[in-house]
Amino acid sequence: MDPAIEFGLLTALLYGVSDFVAKFSSREVGVWRTLFWGELCSASLLTLWIALDASGNGAARAAFAQPWSAWAFAVGSNLTILAATAVFYRALTIGRFSVVMPIVATYGAITALLSMLLGEPLGLVALGGIAVAVLGAALASVPPASGAGQVQASPAGVPRGIGLASVAAVLYGIGFCVQAHYAVPRLGHLVPVWLYYVLGCALLGSVGGLMRRDLSPPRLGQLPVVLGTGLAASGAFVALTLAVTGGDVAVPTVLASLASVVTVLLARLLIKEQVALHQWAGIAAVLFGLLMLHASSSRHLPATVAAASASHAAG
Fold first, then answer.
1. How far apart are CA 298 and CA 304, in angstroms?
2. Structural domain span for residue 93
3. Which residue of 65, 137, 260, 290 sits 20 to 30 Å from the alpha carbon of 95, by its own alpha carbon?
């Protein structure tokens, strides 16, 4: 199997686990504390990794010699992704997996569309996949009419979490697209991820202090969900940057979007969260749309990866 596909699927698995655990961590510990302590743990481990890599002849050492523009793109994209993560965790706190996850999953379609605008080939099949994914997300957002699977709604009658999930999807799509096209090719797969967690810790710590948010350490019994959320997410981020290193952005990002399916299935299997029939149909439509994107983009993937491999060998 192609490395871009392998790392894309690994990204989906790790993000799916992280998103599932994040719901419980956000409810028990709070969004700010979950983000801060989870990212502090990841930043510490990645800093050690960067230091070891930069001390030799690794890619991290070369990254620090890149021009300021590459770092500017990395900082901007990471701030966008960080904002998306905060909005997403808040959506999970007030909404249901079956409503929030299919909407957030469309970030892969957004990234693919933006990549097309930047010159990456994307045909009619891929455009159809984007449309199917968006329509499927809308269908999955409609709450059940009644019964145990009923979705809580806001005073306006809209299921809770829809607006925040939509904002998160757009921010993720923009952030990942900018990072994959302008930061990873010059800084490598590791430094942008490390920068994300360093920025996240600094921003959350400073803003949280100004807003008088509780950033106290989690209790011992809360550490598994907090650290599990952070470590799974950082592992997924590293896998995604590895996936796009070969030059193809649409395929790995679309595969990463399958994390929503992983999360909803975990919710159904482990906590017995009810999912209505039409929501299953919407989830299936999202999956089908993402697979259409994958089928369309994968036509040029082998050549892209082969060219990248040849370039690496020549260097």
1. 10
2. 3-303
3. 290
